[in-house]
Specification:
10 helices, disordered C terminus, single chain, 345 residues, mainly alpha, 3 strands, three-stranded antiparallel sheet
Length: 345
């Protein structure tokens, strides 16, 4: 069976897809900044901002009765804040840019992989569909005046989009790798799955703590920031203590994988990267717990956790390649004829 393959198109696609993944992680970070700084309602309408495509830079550019106009969006007793407005607006612009990147990722996938691996095209389209749904959900978050459960759902959907894109990237890479070098021991695989599940649970629990922080911050105000921790409920203490369980479960697969000589250098680097990110992530959690939840630490804490989970997901995909990517064409079983076309044996 013969099919043409364009290595340049495939290489360009992998770079574009990886760039898109990085951009989504950046959006998660920026979204965390928006939430931690209270800028979520910096633009009280959607898709415009105060009825304008380019937000105002001064209150004089708004109608005199803007507080009355947007009173149903929480502005009855809220004054215009240019920093919060532009923080939210830049968050929206980055989201729009990611939508464009994912669209081009889908188009490039069809050009590079339609004949050889249509699953890549299918998952690229799924990412495009999900990012469109994410935009709609973002509008609902604004219209609900930042309903906590919608914010959490918005963030979780971003994690799903990351997972879909990582699958696309991993699938394009896996075809050029040796299967045997990707396999982990039975014990390492078991702890990899368990620790990934525990980390996801910890992230979900963290979103619940974040909602509680928002409630306490609204009740006590910025001037009482030192008292925010005291106002949190049992979920915060469970989340804090559970981080030790997560760390131990992670080390139970990271250390053996890093030491195993038969594992590929890529798998070892991914394992070490996961452990390093988790240590820093836990450190930022400690900083929040003991230093009055500084605003900068919250988005960093979340982004590091999601990034660690994303790397683990890639390791799982490579380790279980024969299961989750069983239909992938294997270039190790291919030869090239004189015309330059690839013949799969």
């Amino acid at each position: 069976m013969t099919s043409s393959s364009n290595p340049i198109n495939e290489r360009s696609f992998r770079r574009l897809a990886l760039l898109t993944v990085i951009a989504v992680f950046l959006l998660i970070l920026v979204g965390g900044v928006v939430r931690s700084t209270g800028a979520g309602m910096g633009c009280p309408d959607w898709p415009r901002c105060f009825g304008q495509w380019i937000p105002p830079t001064d209150v004089s550019q708004l109608p005199a009765n803007y507080q009355e106009i947007y009173s149903h969006r929480g502005y009855a007793n809220t004054e215009f804040n240019v920093v919060k407005t532009w923080t939210e607006y830049l968050n929206r612009l980055l989201g729009a840019l990611i939508g464009v990147l994912i669209f081009f990722t889908f188009v490039a996938s069809a050009k590079a992989y339609w004949q050889r691996d249509r699953a890549i095209v299918g998952f690229s389209f799924l990412a495009l569909f999900l990012v469109g749904f994410q935009g709609w959900l973002g509008a609902k978050v604004v219209s609900s005046v930042l309903a906590a459960w919608l914010i959490t759902l918005h963030m979780l959907l971003a994690i799903v989009i990351v997972g879909v894109l990582l699958y696309v990237v991993a699938r394009t890479q896996a075809a050029t790798m040796s299967v045997s070098s990707m396999r982990l021991s039975t014990a390492s695989n078991r702890w990899l799955l368990i620790s990934s599940g525990l980390l996801l649970l910890q992230i979900l629990l963290g979103t619940q703590v974040r909602e509680t922080v928002d409630e306490v911050a609204h009740r006590l105000g910025e001037m009482q920031r030192l008292r925010w921790i005291d106002g949190l409920d049992l979920r915060f203490y469970i989340h804090r203590s559970f981080s030790l369980v997560v760390l131990i479960s992670q080390l139970l697969w990271i250390i053996p994988v890093a030491r195993q000589s038969t594992n590929s250098a890529l798998i070892k680097r991914l394992a070490v990267a996961t452990g390093s990110l988790l240590v820093v992530e836990i450190a930022t959690g400690a900083i929040m717990a003991y230093f009055a939840i500084p605003a900068w630490a919250q988005p960093v804490h979340l982004t590091l956790a999601v990034l660690s989970l994303g790397i683990q997901f890639v390791v799982i995909l490579f380790s279980y390649r024969e299961v989750v990517m069983k239909s992938i064409p294997d270039r190790s079983l291919a030869t090239t004829d004189k015309s330059g076309s690839v013949t799969t044996l």
